[in-house]
Amino acid sequence: MLAQDLRKVKLPDLPGVYEFLGAHNEILYIGKATSLRERVRSYFANDLLHTRGKHIVDMVTLAKRVRHKKTDSVLEAVILEASLIKKHQPTYNTKEKDDKSWNYVVVTKEEYPRILQLRERTMFLDRSESASYKYAFGPFTGGTNLKDALKIVRKIFPFRDTCSPAQGKPCFNRQIGLCPGVCTGEISQKEYAERVREIALFWGGKKVTLLRHLTRLMHEHAKQFAFEAAGECKRAIFALRHIKDVSLVSEEVRVASRKSATMRRKPFRIEAYDVAHISGKFTVGVMTVVCDGRPNPSLYRKFKIRTEVEKNDDLLHLEEVLRRRFAHAEWASPDLLVVDGGVAQKRRAETVLRELGKEVTVVSVVKDARHKPRAILGNREMAESYRHGILIGNAEAHRFAVAYHRQLRGRLPK
Question: Which 8-state DSSP code applies to residue 171?
Answer without folding.
Answer: P
